[in-house]
Amino acid sequence: MTARARIRYTKAEAAEQLSISIRALDRLRERGEITARVDGGRIYFDHAELESYARSRPSEGEA
Description:
Elements: E1 8-10, H1 11-18, H2 22-30, E2 37-39, E3 42-46, H3 47-56
Antiparallel strand pairs: 1-3, 2-3
Helix pairs in contact: 1-2
């Protein structure tokens, strides 16, 4: 059986996926660099949004 991809992540999970702090993730969201969704008063980040943001960042060898 193959593992199913996650659809959305909590703030803590999203920060972990991006290897950044929750505060850094909050700053990205506040600046509009990454989009979040609110559901039942909780903030979530779509898997596709996290992938898009990660791809937009230069890799370690670039810059």
